[in-house]
Amino acid sequence: MAGDGITAGRQRSRTNGGNGAAAGGLRVERVWTTEGVHPYDEVEWERRDVVMTNWRDGSINFEQRGVEYPSFWSVNAANIVTTKYFRGAVGTPDREWSLKQLIDRVVQTYRKAGEDFGYFATPGDAELFDHELTWMLLHQVFSFNSPVWFNVGTKSPQQVSACFILSVDDSMDSILDWYKEEGLIFKGGSGSGVNLSRIRSSKELLSSGGTASGPVSFMRGADASAGTIKSGGATRRAAKMVILDVDHPDIEEFVTTKAREEDKIRALRDAGFDMDLGGADIVSVQYQNANNSVRVSDEFMRAVEEGTDFALRGRLDGEVIETIDARKLFTGIAKAAWECADPGLQYDDTINDWHTNPETGRITASNPCSEYMSLDDSSCNLASLNLMKFLKADGGFEVEKFVKSVEFIITAMDISICFADFPTEKIGITTRAYRQLGIGYANLGALLMASGLPYDSEGGRSVAAAITSLMTGTAYRRSAELAGVVGAYDGYARNAEGHQRVMRKHAAANDEVRPLGAVATEILREATRQWQTGNKIGAKNGWRNAQASVLAPTGTIGLMMDCDTTGIEPDLALVKFKKLVGGGSMQIVNQTVPRALRSIGYPEEQVEAIVEHIAEHGNVVDAPGLKPEHYAIFDCAMGDRVIAPIGHVRMMAAVQPFISGAISKTVNMPETATVEEIEDIHFQGWKLGLKALAIYRDNCKVGQPLSAGKGNKAAAAEEKVAEETKAVEKIIEKVIEYRPIRKRLPKKRPSETVSFSVGGAEGYLTASSYPDDGLGEVFLKMSKQGSTLAGVMDAFSVAISIGLQYGVPLETFVSKFTNMRFEPAGMTDDPDVRMASSVMDYIFRRLALDFLDYDTRAELGIFTAKERLAQAQAEAAADAAAVDMTGMAASAPVSAPAGSSSVTVAEVKAAAAPEKAAPATVGSSTELLEIKTGHASDAPLCFTCGTKMRRAGSCYVCEGCGSTSGCS
Length: 968
Known about the structure:
Domain Ribonucleotide reductase large subunit C-terminal: 161-696
Cofactor: adenosylcob(III)alamin
Shape: globular
Helix content: 40-55%
Number of domains: 3
Largest sheet: 10 strands, mixed
Strand content: 5-15%
Domain Ribonucleotide reductase class II vitamin B12-dependent N-terminal: 50-140
InterPro entries: RdRp_reductase_class-2, RNR_2_N, RNR_lg_C, RNR_NrdJ/NrdZ, TSCPD_dom
Structural class: alpha/beta
């Protein structure tokens, strides 16, 4: 089908009149490269060793030495590309060992396909296209999505798409096909979404007279399948989206599905089961491998607005089965999202109002991260630009280079469809007929900060809207030019009117943008020209692609491009975690901070003072010389100054009219957010014209770290526990006289307080002694950990203290409570107890070390660091052969500190901000941020290397190894 369209385009030999495209092929202009010099010869190359360890236990899970990268590529980028994208078995001659091989494998495949399918006017144009694309990839100007790097140029199927949409009909054959198709997509390293609304509800009858199972029941089988493939996949986790229309009779069951499972997780956890992320028992919980979304219509949203009823309709005949209160259902959706972050909302009428192919069919579903929205049984390949590469030193924007770069990328993406393989025949047919593309960008948050613009500001939204409009306008203009060379997409003829209508809508939205500042004005002026030119060319030629742009999470590829921020997201935090060549790590202030300070006029000495303050405190509050009106420029997604939820929604609304698809982004809300506030965010998303919206309330997941704050409820709980405990004490003293006599501590007694951290959870242990030094009282405070835990800790402290005062030996408590296993667990900040299997395990080991004699502790297997060292030295003296090994084990640090011999002078000088050795227990920027702010994040731990991941759109990405929870 695709071949027929391309041949027809060549036979027509039309001249489109656009820049760079003529009958018979494209003429390519030089933009980034230097004539007569290959891109590889312009940079300095170096060899590195890539050794990836599991942060939790230090075991090596990947090792490849002598890999070749440009000197300016970060350690993180090189590590991720080596482990994720180099092909061939490690340790064999077939294994790729240089970035040159990876780029050549992909670019040369694209060039050959471009020549074979008639994209270029001459061989010289093809070669220049090759060099320009190579230069851009080498210098991290953009990146293709991960499946391109996984598959293109290899012996594997040439799957280039990251995003898939499937379809399911109301038949068992179709449902089983859905299971199979999802599995094939997951196997290829991609994700898929599906709308289950065609399946009859559990309130409808089968032809046999029985009652249908309903879509929620079939979700169980698909969830189990995804969980299995997720566990065994070599490239990434399974990622999937399940959608149900708001008028489906089973909508209420669907809405509460994951919230009910969250209640189950709590109950099983409290019963002693391992329900942590990746825990042994979490697999017993259902529906955890998919994002859920409700498709809401304008009719439903108006019913919510007006407080009227809403009809739920049968799937076979459309007859009304039940009438419900629209506001009650809307509140139920918000309540479920409050409890477990699911479901999200997709605004169906808005989505289909911007649909370029309405004659072919409606858009019913999306990919897992909600950015790709198109026809059923279709796919989309993605690529993202690094916006910081276009920021000039004077604060301007490289408009011309940006335009030319979009041309190159769109051309390459369209070429890939010519040779791509697809997991099913249906998807292949649809994708070749409609040729959906998804160009996008990363580093918007860094660009705005470096430009001195707050993310949540009219100025910031103005620049973001202008850039997005320019990107999509240029992409569609190039698509129209390509249609003149190789033909419009096969489905264009029947959808010409609808496609042109949407192009006019984009252009009209562009005209409504109010530019603020010279930079936004310049970008918007060029965007206007691109829409006008592109629509004029498209009216003659049609368009090569049914859609052109999305805003994806850019998780792994964002790290590959050394981006500070992913997709449309703001900066995560002002301090970050940096790995160094040769090993070791350090924390630095983000490079965008000093650039932002200079852009708004601060002199160098003030810049240094402010950056030093940020390095120390992790925020700009009270930074010396920084004006309070400039604080908002440095607001981030996490930390002490965070962007308000509505600020995220407004940014999405500013760029949505210039995106063919939608935006992968989660609106983070504080733990204190109410159901009513979530309802308001959902409602504002509809009013502001978004296509999809998902929220995440901090700490709503059981498997996440505990809350960082403790409010008035905690104090009330503590007071109540204390009063009840006093009452119990009086009863014990008066009634149970046969029990041992309680020996109370004197009013004035010696005590010591120890602060501790176990797996990132912080607390304080205060131990009071009798005058003869016997332990008699314990108080435990979990610092800022939430009312429930604080109350439990207080009650537990009282119980232990009473037991000690009635004569229960401390060693009895130690023997009972050490080695208990539950979260939080992991590394501690205590040199004598480096690992703890739980907070209880740590507390009683610490008490044993402080209050029990050596012999008693030795029987319990509890020793100080000095005692363990003495034992090791004694063993070494007894066995000379073990001396070297023992010395190495004792001296090898978890990570080489900054400034060690493994850190080059160039590495240290490269950072513009103050640097200091990263804490030994830190493995990512998220963990560093937790230490700086004292607030726990809700990010999961990476299944591959154990570090805490960071959010990328509506997904998560691991800074350590590049693993993602999404599909782009």
